[in-house]
Structures are given as C-alpha cells and as structure tokens.
C-alpha cells in the first residue's frame, strides 16, 4: 500500500509513455486493499509490462 503515483510513474514509464493524469491510486483502508491504474499512450507499452 506504499506505492505512490510518483513511484508507479518511475517504474512503469520504463515500458512506455504514460498518458497525462494516467496514474490513479484508489484505496479502502477499512477493507485493507488498494487499486492502482496506469494508462499508457501506446498499446505496445502494455505488452511490455505484461511480459516483464
């Protein structure tokens, strides 16, 4: 639960360009889980992340 948007950007931009405002972090601390979304500008970047 410690992954900040800045940390996500640092790691995921290695795979390709991220859309402006393309990183979202949503959490429900009471239930103890988080969702993180990264939206890339190009489909190839998604494939690179999946293969990594």
From TrEMBL:
It comes from the Eukaryota. InterPro entries: Ras_GTPase_bind_prot. This is Ras GTPase-activating protein-binding protein.
């Amino acid at each position: 639960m410690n992954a900040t948007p800045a940390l996500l950007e640092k790691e995921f931009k290695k795979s390709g360009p991220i859309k402006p405002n393309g990183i979202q972090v949503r959490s429900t601390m009471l239930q103890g889980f988080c969702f993180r979304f990264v939206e890339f500008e190009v489909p190839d970047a998604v494939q690179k992340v999946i293969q990594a």
